[in-house]
Design a protein that fits this description.
Layout: H1 2-14, E1 30-39, E2 42-50, E3 61-69, E4 75-83, E5 90-92, E6 98-102, E7 105-114, E8 119-126, E9 134-135, E10 142-143, E11 151-154, E12 160-164, E13 170-174, E14 188-189, H2 194-197, E15 216-220, E16 223-230, E17 236-242, E18 250-256, E19 270-274, E20 277-284, E21 296-302, E22 333-334, E23 337-338, E24 340-342, E25 345-349, E26 353-357, E27 364-371, E28 378-385, E29 390-396, E30 403-409, E31 414-424, E32 431-439, E33 447-453
Antiparallel strand pairs: 1-2, 2-3, 3-4, 4-23, 5-7, 6-7, 7-8, 8-9, 8-10, 11-12, 12-13, 13-14, 15-16, 16-17, 17-18, 19-20, 20-21, 22-33, 24-27, 25-26, 27-32, 28-31, 28-33, 29-30, 29-32
The chain binds beta-L-arabinofuranose.
The site of beta-L-arabinofuranose has 12 residues, from strand 1.
C-alpha cells in the first residue's frame, strides 16, 4: 500500500495529468455541510444541498441528501432523506444538520427557519439511516437567534449532548428519548476566548474568539475534540480539545486554511473513524459552476500526532487515494454508486428509487477498485429510454481504456419503463477501475438504474 502511494506521488509530480480526481466526492448535485455517521460497517454521509439555481444571491437550500460507502471512494446516492417541508412549522433554509443512531432509531437534528421567523433546531426520526425521516415532535426542539448547525454526540456512559450556534456556542444534555433536553441542566453558553476557541484577528460583530459556527464533536483516546469553522469569512477549520465533553476547552490549532483554489466562503467539518483510519469531511466550491452558494463535499484522511494534536491538512483533488475495500461486480450494484462522473444527474421515483439520468453522449461514470475475481462473461444493466437510446461502453482503467463490451440500449417506451439489457463482455480478472462511457446521438439517451456482471 505504502509503495503504491509513493509511486502515485512520484507519477503525479512527473505527470500532473495522471492525478485523478476524487474530490469533490459527489458530482451529480451541489452538496455542503457534511455529517458522516458510521453504522453497521457502512459510512452514511448526510449533506445539506445547494440548489442548482441560487435565488436572491443567498443560500438556496431545501432538503438534506444521503450517500453511503463501504470503501470511502465509491459513494451510493440514496436521494433526499428529509426536507424543510417535513417540518410543518418551517419556511425553509435547510442548513447544516447531523444524524445519529440510538436504540434502533435514527435521529436527524437540523436547523431551519420558522414560519413565524427566527432560527430553530428540529429533530426528525426514522427506522432507516436513509429515511424517510419524519418530524419527531411537531415543533422546534430549540429556538433562538443563531440556533443553527447542531452537532450531536453520545458519550460512552450513554449521555447525549448537542452543541450548536453562530455567533455563540451553546450546548444541552439531551434526554434518553433524544427528543427533549435536560431543562434543569439548562442551555449552557460557552464563554468564547482566545485560549479556548482561538484568537480572532478580524474583529467583527463583537465576536470574542475565532470560533464561527458549524461545531463537530469527536472523541479519541479519552480526549474530546470540537472541530469548527473559524477566523471569520472566508472560513478556516480549527479545533479545540477538552478532557471532558462539557469543557473546559483548550484551543488546538488551524487544521485547514481558507481554501484558495475552488474555495467557498464557508467550510464545515465532519470527522469519523472508519476501518482503522480517521477522515475529515469538509466542503469547497470546486465543481464546475460552483462557489459560495454552490458547494461540494470533499474528504481527506487525518493523521494525529503522538500528543493527540493534528497537523495542517491540505485540501487535495485526489482525496482518499486508497479504497478500504473492493467492490464486487457480481452483486447488483446501483448505477448511482459513483467514484467520479461527468455530465450526469440523479433522480428518484417511488418505484425505482434513485437512478442515474441526464445521460448524454460522452458522459461517463467511474467506479473504483472493482475486484473482478472470477472472470465474468456477461453484463446486465437496468435501463429505460423514451428517446433513441444509445450504448454503454464498458471499459477498465481509464475512460478510453480496454473495452470489455458494449451494451446497447433501445427505446423502452418511456423514461420509467425499465428493462434489463444484457451483453457479452471480454473476460477480465483482478482489481480495476471500471468505466461506463455513454454513447449516442443528440439529447438525453437513457436512464440507468443498476448493473451486474455474471
Ligand atoms: O450551509 C448553510 C450554512 O453555511 C451552514 O449552516 C453553515 O455551517 C455554513 O456552512
Amino acid at each position: 500500500m505504502k509503495n503504491k502511494n509513493v509511486l502515485l506521488l512520484v507519477l503525479s509530480s512527473l505527470f500532473p495529468m495522471l492525478v485523478f480526481s476524487q474530490n469533490p466526492i459527489v458530482q451529480t448535485h451541489y452538496t455542503a455541510d457534511p455529517a458522516p455517521m458510521v453504522h453497521d460497517g457502512r459510512v452514511y454521509l448526510y449533506t445539506s444541498h445547494d440548489e442548482d439555481e441560487t435565488v436572491n444571491g443567498f443560500f438556496t437550500m431545501n432538503d438534506w441528501l444521503c450517500y453511503s460507502s463501504t470503501d470511502m471512494v465509491n459513494w451510493t446516492d440514496h436521494g433526499a432523506a428529509l426536507s424543510y417541508k417535513d417540518f410543518e412549522w418551517s419556511r425553509g433554509d435547510a442548513w447544516a444538520g447531523q444524524c445519529i443512531y440510538r436504540n434502533g432509531k435514527f435521529y436527524y437534528y437540523v436547523p431551519v427557519n420558522q414560519k413565524n421567523g427566527g432560527n430553530a433546531i428540529g429533530v426528525a426520526v426514522s427506522d432507516s439511516p436513509t429515511g424517510p425521516f419524519k418530524d419527531a415532535i411537531g415543533e422546534p426542539l430549540l429556538s433562538g437567534y443563531g440556533y443553527i448547525d447542531p452537532t450531536v454526540f453520545i458519550d460512552d456512559d450513554g449521555q447525549a449532548y448537542m452543541y450548536w450556534g453562530n455567533p455563540n456556542l451553546w450546548h444541552v444534555k439531551l434526554n434518553d428519548d433524544m427528543l427533549s433536553y435536560d431543562e434543569e441542566y439548562g442551555i449552557v453558553k460557552e464563554e468564547l476566548r482566545d485560549d479556548n476557541f482561538g484568537y480572532r484577528s478580524k474583529k467583527v460583530d463583537n465576536r470574542t474568539a475565532a470560533y464561527e459556527e458549524g461545531p463537530w464533536m469527536y472523541k479519541r483516546n479519552n480526549l474530546y475534540y470540537l472541530f469548527y469553522p473559524a477566523g471569520g469569512v472566508p472560513e478556516q477549520l480549527a479545533y479545540s480539545t477538552s478532557p471532558s465533553v462539557t469543557g473546559p476547552w483548550t484551543y488546538g490549532d488551524t487544521i485547514m486554511h481558507v481554501i484558495q483554489k475552488g474555495g467557498a466562503f464557508t467550510n464545515h467539518p465532519g470527522v469519523i473513524d472508519y476501518k482503522g483510519n480517521t477522515y475529515l469531511f469538509y466542503h469547497n466550491g470546486a465543481l464546475p459552476g460552483g462557489g459560495g452558494f454552490k458547494r461540494s463535499v470533499c474528504v481527506e484522511p487525518i493523521e494525529f500526532n503522538a500528543d493527540g494534536s493534528i497537523s495542517l491538512i491540505e485540501p487535495t483533488q485526489e482525496g482518499v487515494k486508497e479504497s478500504v475495500s473492493f467492490l464486487d461486480p457480481r452483486t447488483r450494484v446501483q448505477a448511482e454508486t459513483i467514484a467520479w462522473s461527468e455530465g450526469l444527474k440523479t433522480a428518484t421515483d417511488s418505484k425505482t428509487g434513485v437512478y442515474v439520468t441526464k445521460i448524454d453522449n460522452g458522459d461517463y461514470i467511474k467506479v473504483r477498485s472493482v475486484d473482478f475475481g472470477k472472470r465474468s462473461i456477461k453484463f446486465e444493466a437496468s435501463v429505460s429510454s423514451a428517446s433513441a437510446g444509445g450504448e454503454i461502453e464498458i471499459r477498465i482503467d481509464s475512460v478510453d481504456g480496454e473495452l470489455l463490451g458494449i451494451c446497447k440500449v433501445e427505446n423502452t417506451g418511456g423514461w420509467q419503463n425499465w428493462t434489463v439489457q444484457t451483453c457479452k463482455v471480454k473476460k477480465t480478472k483482478g482489481v480495476h477501475d471500471l468505466y461506463f462511457v455513454f454513447k449516442g446521438g443528440d439529447g438525453q439517451l437513457f436512464n440507468f438504474d443498476w448493473w451486474k456482471f455474471r
